Amino acid sequence: MAALRIQTPAGPPELRRRNLASSPAHVGLDLIGFSSWMLPMGDHRCAGSAVVTRNGVGYVGAGRKNCSEAFLKNGVVCSFDDSGVRVSTLCSSLPSEAVSFGSKMSLVNSMGFARKKKGGKLWRRFQGGKKLVRHRAPKHGLGKDRHGHKSVVKDDDIDAVLSRISKESSIEECNSALIRLEKLSDEKALNFFDWMKINGKLKGNAHAYHLALQAIAWKEDWKMAELLLREMVADSGCALDARAFNGLIYVCAKRRLDAWATKWFHMMLEREVQPNLSTIGMLMGLYQKTGKLSEAEFTFEKMRNCNIKCVNAYSAMITLYTRLGLFAKSEDTINLMNNDGLVPNMENWLVRLNVYCQQGKMEEAELVLQSMVDEGFTLNVVAYNTLITGYGKSSDMQKANKVFDSLGSAGLAPDETTYRSMVEGFGRANIYEEAMLYYRKLKGAGFRANASNFYTMINLLARHDDNETAAEILEDMRAAGCQRSSIVTFLVRAYGAVGRMHKVLPILQACFNKKILLDATSCSILVTSFVQNSVLEEALYILCVKRSGKILLLKTTYIIY
Questions:
Q1: Contact at 8 Å (CB) between 392 and 421?
Q2: First-to-final CA distance of the chain
Q3: CB neighbours of 379 closer than 8 A, spacing ≥ 6?
Q4: Could you tell me the pLDDT band of residue 155, with boundaries at 50, 70 and 90?
Q5: How many structural domains comprise the chain?
Q6: What is the largest distance, in Å, between two alpha-carbon atoms of the chain?
Q7: Cα separation of 78 and 91, whole Å?
Q8: CA proximity to 510, closest of 548, 553, 463, 449
Q9: How far is CA 540 from CA 503, 511, 515, 530, 556, in A?
Q10: Whole-angstrom Cα distance, residue 391 to residue 377?
Q11: Using CA atoms, how far apart are residues 516 and 525, in angstroms rounded to an integer?
């Protein structure tokens, strides 16, 4: 089928952040799939930072005046020589005055310091574009909540967390404060993590490292994350576990950074860290979205070797194979899941149903459907749409009609996929009137046809020689944003296949009022197709029109002045 290009506004995907402590990542049914490519960036940290000195607050960084005296930077004592170059750094505790950490941070906040320049630039290739366009990815942090929406993080909120913390606070109290800060601001959480490190609150404190790793991951500072993993073992005596890597993999999964997710997973295995259910669920969901088959197969094999039971991983594997047309492997994965003794969930039943419906194996599909009902699952509109697709592929439109009619009795309303599947089914069965009926129902319900529907309808119009309706379909294609060259390509292929190439030019002129001849690409396609189909008069007509711009139509012969 010809590639239909529809002009749509493109932009960076919305990035949403969720709590890692929630349930494992779920993989949704993906019958279409799409992917985007993002290149990992390096360290975005700026040189400047706020410091608290024995005389008050100062700022050290590029373009700012440096303090020549000793100062405290994130709990580290530093000094500069006369040229302003730092010559020594040593760890120290906070000043001995009876002032809490929260009061010092409040002072820093009130002066407007301790704010890093926003980084995290991502590259994303626009759909249909040829250049990489730079975008700033929506980050979680100050000014946004955990879902990427604008919110206000008040200094009072942070002060309330820090006011109860001092050097005498227990590790549990510090961890509780770190959890709350991580929900408010990654930057504040990491500053407090540094303070905990200086004051000996991180020895054996794996939970604090897990929170810090996830905060660093949202900043995409992968180099710092790797250093922190080493420090976690070497300096604090913590044992690496799945949670240490899950925070990193989680962010990669949300932002579709499959290369980085794969790197962390391999590092996890190299250090003999056992993955858990969340690890497998996040990775398989990511690979399903980005279409990384080899990585998914590797992860799936490791999952089975580790005796991890993740139903969503089987669903992702089945979906990937089905999307690539590897139906035998899809069915093998279904049998493997049955032999492993896993109980399907709703999503897994749907992907199983889709495997057989995509092949037109409706006897097997009906058995899957009956098993769903026997297990107590209520059929949703996705199940009905999948069945309609299957009956359409097997050209059994009588049963497809029954399924469509049964939607109402099930308390469900047909959606755009329902109508589109009916159009495709009747088109495949070459039942023109019914296909046209559901095409108009699709529009009447406020939905738009997709590229496959347009191609199906154009082929039906060519076979049944309905030129009047052809103008209606072409107008719908133009309203949907189809380029003229795509419309011409569809038309010449459909009408050329049934030997009616001489009908193409009048249809195009009736719809586009001769403007089609102003498009160089469309004219080139038309001339080439006319010559290949031995319709030479139309080919010469277009060439002459392009040359002179003057047209005179006389009966069925084109005469050029």
A1: yes
A2: 39
A3: 369, 372, 373, 410
A4: low
A5: 1
A6: 103
A7: 9
A8: 553
A9: 16, 21, 17, 9, 14
A10: 22
A11: 11
Contact 449, 478 (CB under 8 A): no
- CA nearest to 242, candidates 218, 195, 275: 275
Distance CA 224, CA 216 (A): 7
135 sits in which H/E element? strand 132-136
Least confident of 4-18, 20-34, 352-366: 20-34
The answer as to whether 287 is a domain residue is no
Q: What would the DSSP string read from start to end of 266-305?
A: HHHHHTTPPP-HHHHHHHHHHHHHHT-HHHHHHHHHHHHH
What are 175's two structure tokens? Answer: 């961890």
Quick check: pTM over 0.90? no
Q: How many CB atoms lie within 10 A of CB 420?
A: 23
d(CA 524, CA 540): 12
Mark residue 325 as left, alpha or beta (left: phi above 0; alpha: psi -120 to 50; beta: remaining).
left
Cα–Cα nearest to 117, from 141, 133, 101:
141
Amino acid residing at 425: G
Give me the residues paired with residue 122 across strands: 135
Query: Among 187, 154, 193, which Cα is nearest to 174's?
Result: 193
- DSSP codes, 59-78: EESTTSPPP-S-EEETTEEE
CB 344 within 8 A of CB 337: yes
Q: Which residue has the tokens 């890093």?
A: 116
User: Which pLDDT band, with edges at 50, 70 and 90, does 399 fall under?
Assistant: very high
Is 278 inside any structural domain? no
d(CA 216, CA 225): 6
In a domain, 257, yes or no: no
Tens of pLDDT, residues 327-339: 999 999 999 999 9
Residues 6+ apart with CB under 8 A from 38: 122, 123, 124, 255, 256, 257
Q: What residues form DSSP beta bridges with 88?
A: 79
Q: Residue 112 contacts by C-beta under 8 Å, 6 or more apart in sequence?
A: none
> Does any domain span residue 66?
yes
What is the length of the chain? Answer: 561
Q: How far apart are CA 23 and CA 245, in angstroms?
A: 16
Query: Taking the CB of residue 328, how many other CB atoms lie within 10 A of it?
Result: 10
Measure the CA–CA gap between 451 and 343, rounded to whole angstroms: 37
What is the spatial distance between Cα 208 and Cα 179, in angstroms, rounded to a whole number?
Answer: 8
Q: Rounded distance, CA 399 to CA 405, Å?
A: 10
Q: Where are the alpha helices (DSSP H) in 101-167?
A: 101-111, 155-162
Domain boundaries, position 101: 49-124+131-139
Q: Is 465 exposed, middle or buried (0-12, 13-18, 19+ CB in 10 A)?
A: exposed
Report the alpha-carbon distance of residue 380 to residue 407 in Å, rounded. Answer: 9
Asked whether the predicted pLDDT for residue 405 surpasses 70, the reply is yes
| 209 and 202 Cβ atoms separated by less than 8 Å | yes
* Model confidence pLDDT, tens digit, residues 193-246: 999 999 999 999 999 999 999 999 999 999 999 999 999 999 999 999 999 999
- Which two structure tokens, joined as six digits, stand for 531? 């010559």
